[in-house]
Automatic annotation (TrEMBL):
One Pfam match: EamA
Residues of the EamA domain: 166-297
Keywords linked to the UniProt accession: Membrane, Transmembrane, Transmembrane helix
Superkingdom per UniProt: Bacteria
Protein's recorded name: Inner membrane transporter RhtA
Database matches in InterPro entries: AA-Vitamin_Transporters, EamA_dom, EmrE-like
Compartments, as annotated in UniProt: Membrane
Keyword tRNA processing: no
Length: 306
């Protein structure tokens, strides 16, 4: 009886489809590559709206709003069980949450100083570094060199007004945080069932960032319109893309997923142009293309040797 109730896509009282089944059916009707593209656009739209909040709130307060909104939503759907956790589980979960807080804080500080496309391109060096570090192929040196050339093109050697050294520094910290996030995410996946590891990490992250975010945001955090935008940023940046990526990974090879994700810096630059009017120079577009090409090359080369 219970199994039938769980599998039945219709509400037995009204005869109407269950909301969950409608969402799954809608997701299943979209090709997995389309889900990944939607997830990428969702993340970057969230970053774009977050950057618009910087006019009213400092980056640390916006991070607090985003992570808290994401933690509340994720916690409601994937409540982590704390009873019976070993100390190693706690260590992984707490480290995961701390990394998530520092990664997002660094990225938003970079975003406040750099155009979106540039900040995301530099941050993307994190997963590229993890992929190259796990490899023993000489060809990966080509991709490292290409990525380094991209960063060199982005550096404000001539005192560019749109790029600051402090912004690049924060973006590099975000890249290191993303690399640590990847490793800790895998560790949490082995110790926590389903998505409860991420939910646990987001709750920890919200607690860690709360003192800084609440102090810098002050009474402005209580404005209803800012809270609403913060909720939207949390949905677009965390909940929606993670759900879409999870659905896509169930239906496509991981190497194809990695190739599509390599397009994220280019999408960030496009969103920056369309949403924030952040026009980039030819040299900056060339730098983003170098980093995207390095990520694509590394992912495709890894697939060929398997």
């Amino acid at each position: 009886m219970t199994a039938f109730a769980l599998d039945d896509p219709y509400d037995r009282g009204s005869g109407l489809p269950r909301p969950g089944s409608l969402l799954r059916s809608a997701a299943d009707s979209i090709p997995p590559s389309g889900l990944v593209v939607l997830a990428i656009f969702s993340v970057q739209l969230g970053a774009g709206f977050a950057k618009e909040l910087f006019a009213a709130l400092p980056p640390s307060a916006v991070v607090f709003l985003r992570i808290t909104a994401g933690a509340l939503i994720m916690g409601a759907f994937a409540r982590p069980r704390l009873k019976g956790l070993a100390w190693r589980d706690w260590a992984v979960g707490l480290g995961f949450g701390l990394t998530l807080a520092l990664m997002n804080l660094s990225f938003y500080e970079a975003l406040s100083r750099l155009p979106m496309g540039i900040a995301v391109a530099i941050e993307f060096l994190g997963p590229l570094g993890v992929a190259v570090a796990a490899s023993r192929r000489r060809v990966d040196l080509v991709w490292v060199g290409l990525a380094a050339a991209g960063v060199a093109l982005l550096a404000p050697w001539g005192g560019s007004a749109t790029v600051q050294w402090a912004g690049i520094g924060f973006a590099v910290l975000a890249a290191l945080g993303w690399a640590a996030y990847i490793l800790l995410s895998a560790a949490a996946g082995r110790r926590f069932p389903g998505t409860t590891g991420l939910s646990f990490a987001m709750i920890v992250s919200a607690v860690v960032i709360a003192p800084v975010g609440a102090t810098t945001g002050g009474a402005e955090l209580l404005r209803p319109e800012l809270l609403l935008i913060g909720l939207g940023v949390g949905l677009l940046s965390s909940v929606i893309p993670y759900s879409l990526e999870l659905q896509a990974l169930r239906r496509m090879p991981k190497h194809v997923f990695g190739i599509l994700m390599s397009l994220e810096p280019a999408v960030a630059a496009l969103i920056g142009v369309l949403l924030l009017s952040e026009l980039l120079h030819v040299q900056q577009w060339a730098a983003i293309i170098c980093i995207v090409a390095a990520s694509l090359g590394s992912t495709r080369a890894a697939r060929r040797v398997k």
